[in-house]
Design brief:
By secondary structure, this protein is an alpha+beta fold. It has three domains: about 150 residues, Ubiquitin-like (UB roll); about 375 residues, Creatine Kinase, Chain A, domain 2 (2-Layer Sandwich), CATH 3.30.590.10; about 130 residues, Four Helix Bundle (Hemerythrin (Met), subunit A) (Up-down Bundle), CATH 1.20.120.1560. The protein contains 26 helices and 17 strands. Strands 9, 10, 11, 12, 13, 14, 15, 16 and 17 form a nine-stranded mixed sheet that branches. Strands 1, 2, 5, 6, 7 and 8 form a six-stranded mixed sheet that branches. Helix 8 packs parallel to helix 17 and helix 22 packs parallel to helix 24. The structure holds adenosine-5'-diphosphate and magnesium ion.
């Protein structure tokens, strides 16, 4: 009897919802109570210091040491008053997770006394012992150490009893070793480029911020179940397991009612998020059983990225209290929808205008069209880099598997805007007659309704869809750090807007065109030149695969293939020219990601081999022995006629042997292939071998194991089954 699995089942059925303490039901009172925000800063600091921090946040100005000391002291007092005992520089190394190294405020003085100390130096810079973070050879080649440096644009916060200070993480030689540094640089360039273009329409604009609203999907299963499954524990997903009789066919989970246990978890998660300033707003069930989604109100992109990283962290921590395991993997269960993380993106001015939202006047709408068309053009020109920005072993299971956008990047804009672009495309080249311009403004540009939300049909199969007042990048993986894709989107749009400005100015200066004429002319060209990436049809269809190929769009289905775009000469030039990443940094990142891919597949391969050999095969043999005993007994009773009564059992005995021998020979072959792959010195070849030669064994081995799951006595089966994990709460 498989006691482990049944104990897990019993445990999960006995669980009661965990009581959540709510100090107040008003979420607005909780909001940012653990954040060193504007208000706390104003209260604790001199006006001068406050202004200096604001300058740093808004204009990226340097903060001098004296002010840093003031900020540190204010931060320390605030943190201690909230019960904090330690502080940490909180950063996002290239593992994609978050990292922290805690130090106490406590320090001893020469007189043998103890004081609580934290000064500007400690706030601004710290050296974590970080030699074991991935660095793609940068630190080995250049310098042995890296340091973290304060990012004042993301406010410090207290989690449990630690003051966390968001920081960047760089090598002493200056190379970035984290996700945040290039993101901040990209946000800075897109600010400059977009502000310059926005000034065509409104001289008062002095800053443009990228905005991000992510939607986090995840699965929850009882932790008792994951404890029975080495695959979930070590790889975050199930490597085997037969589909339940009932899956998601009935679509009855989507927006269905949420169980008390899950609700308890969600409530606590929301309360903690609120305190940390993560403005979570919506929660609901997702398509698959036990799948959920959490989305905040959108924020400035750097802050939103930090908030998502922080959220992923606290999701796991809070889940423990509720005896849940959060699965953030892109495809935890075969045959059941995977999880993604939509990245809703837009640009906002410091005059309060969303540049991707149509407005009330033709001028507002021309501004909207300018940013809208430039974004489409950027996506068109850099579609392969965008695909690379979301490549991971986990996401490979989703993209192109008819449940998420395909590996092809395309832009969906809806019928109405397609019409507008078609009309703009037919505008006369060169200077427009006053009459033509009036007609254009009134009948085309002027006709874009202020609210497009209801008119842009939600085409769920598109990877980059315009949804009324923002673009929604839907191909991001659920476990991804949003910094990667956000860095790429903002960089390519920045480059595009710079080119646009140059071209428009050239027409104004050299061809003596009016500003409007010049803008119309360039936009018309862009519409023509970015047609390949626009697609309104069914992204899941085979036709689209063929059509996309004809259009010259990339369709990189695996991570090793997709990642190559990160070191194409086009990308290298782009990031170099905009001063976002050097060639060394880009190559280092590429290497880290390829290595990470290799490691993921290698671990999955080992775990699958172990489970199949140590759990599945012995269980099958045990059941087979029971059958053999049964057959031997029948033989004793029926003598030589036993075959008639024992026919079925004998068939099963034979089948079990076939599956066992297949499993064993497949595992042997897989290990042999792995050994060959490991000998390869070239890391790219190694990744390709893991992808193309090792990974295909997974499905084959799994198939035999899953067949055995259906055959073997339920009571003997050691691993929690899909039906238990997905339908018991
Ligand atoms: P769904 O995709 O589930 O249908 P929506 O498309 O309504 O949901 O997604 C809303 C998301 O878009 C929210 O996370 C919200 O914060 C985000 N969002 C709305 N406006 C903007 C904006 N201007 N910039 C960035 N994100 C935005
Ligand atoms: Mg969405």
């Amino acid at each position: 009897m498989s006691t482990i699995r049944f104990k897990a089942l019993e445990k999960s059925m006995d669980r009661k919802p965990v009581k959540v303490k709510e100090e107040t039901t008003r979420r607005s009172e909780l909001f940012e109570s653990n954040v060193f925000n504007d208000e706390s800063m104003l209260q604790a600091m001199t006006k001068e210091a406050y202004r200096s921090v604001q300058d740093a946040i808004i204009h990226g100005k340097k903060i001098d040491r004296r002010v840093a000391d003031q900020v540190a002291s204010a931060m320390k007092d605030w943190a201690i008053s909230k019960g904090a005992t330690h502080y940490t520089h909180w950063f996002q190394p290239l593992t994609g997770a978050t990292a922290e190294k805690h130090d106490a405020f406590f320090e001893t003085t020469s007189g043998g006394r103890a004081v609580e100390k934290f000064d500007g130096g400690q706030l601004v810079q710290q050296e974590p012992d970080a030699s074991s973070f991935p660095n793609g050879g940068i630190r080995n080649t250049f310098e042995a150490r890296g340091y973290t440096a304060w990012d004042p644009s993301s406010p410090a916060f207290i989690y449990e009893t630690t003051l966390c200070i968001p920081t960047i993480f760089v090598a002493y030689t200056g190379e970035a070793l984290d996700n945040k540094t290039p993101l901040l640089k990209a946000l800075h360039v897109v600010d400059d480029a977009a502000t310059a273009v926005a000034k065509y329409f409104d001289k008062k604009v002095t800053k443009v911020s990228a905005t991000l609203g992510w939607e986090q999907e995840y699965f929850l299963i009882d932790s008792a179940f994951s404890d029975t499954r080495p695959d979930i524990k070590l790889t975050g997903r199930t490597l085997l397991g037969h589909s339940p009789a009932k899956g998601q066919q009935l679509d009855d989970h989507y927006f269905g009612s949420i169980s008390d246990r899950v609700m308890g978890y969600m409530r606590e998660l929301e309360i903690e998020s609120m305190k940390l300033g993560i403005p979570v707003k919506t929660r609901h069930n997702e398509v698959a059983p036990n799948q959920f989604e959490l989305a905040p109100i959108f924020e400035e992109a750097n802050l939103a990225v930090d908030h998502n990283s922080l959220l992923m962290d606290i999701m796991q921590k809070i889940a423990k209290k509720h005896h849940f395991k959060v699965l953030m993997h892109e495809k935890p269960f075969a045959g059941i929808n995977g999880s993604g993380k939509h990245n809703n993106w837009s640009l906002a001015t410091d005059t309060g205008v969303n540049l991707l939202s149509p407005g009330l006047t033709p001028m507002n709408n021309l501004q909207f069209l300018t940013f809208f068309i430039n974004t489409i053009k950027a996506v068109n020109d850099y579609e392969e880099l965008i695909r690379a920005s979301i490549a991971s072993a986990g996401n490979d299971h989703r993209l192109g598997a008819n449940e998420a956008p395909p590996a092809i990047i395309s832009v969906f804009i809806g019928e109405q805007l397609t019409k507008v672009l078609d009309e703009l495309e037919n505008v006369t080249k060169g200077k427009l007659s006053p009459q033509e311009k009036t007609t254009l403004k009134l009948n085309v540009v002027g006709k874009i309704p202020e609210i497009l939300l209801d008119n842009t049909d939600r085409n769920r199969t598109s990877s980059f869809a315009f949804t009324g007042n923002k673009f929604e990048f839907r191909a991001v993986g659920s476990s991804a750090n949003c910094a990667g894709p956000m860095m790429v989107i903002n960089t390519i749009v920045a480059q595009q807007l710079k080119d646009f400005k140059t071209e428009v100015d050239a027409l104004i200066d050299e061809k003596d065109m009016k500003k409007d004429d010049a803008i119309f002319n360039i936009l018309r060209e862009y519409i023509k030149r970015s047609k390949a990436v626009r697609f309104e049809g069914d992204g899941y269809s085979d036709n689209w695969q063929k059509e996309a190929k004809k259009r010259g769009l990339s369709n990189n289905k695996t991570t090793p293939l997709a990642l190559k775009a990160k070191i194409s000469s086009k990308s290298i030039i782009l990031f170099n020219e905009l001063n976002i990443m050097t060639t060394v940094e880009q190559k280092a990142r590429y290497e880290i990601e390829v290595e990470e891919y290799i490691m993921k597949i290698q671990i999955e391969s080992r775990v699958l081999g172990d489970i199949a050999r140590n759990h599945i095969v012995p269980t099958a043999i045990r059941y087979q022995n029971t059958l053999i005993k049964n057959v031997t007994g029948l033989k004793e009773i029926f003598g030589k006629d036993f075959k008639e009564t024992a026919q079925e059992q004998i068939e099963i005995i034979k089948n079990i042997s076939i599956h066992i021998s297949k499993i064993n020979s497949l595992i042997d072959a897989m290990i042999a292939t792995r050994k060959k792959a490991n000998k390869l010195v070239d890391f790219e070849k190694k990744a390709t071998t893991y992808c193309e030669k090792v990974k295909p064994y997974f499905d084959e081995i799994r198939q035999h194991c899953d067949k055995l799951e259906l055959t073997v006595d339920d009571e003997l089966w050691p691993l929690s089954k899909y039906r238990e994990m997905l339908f018991t709460r």
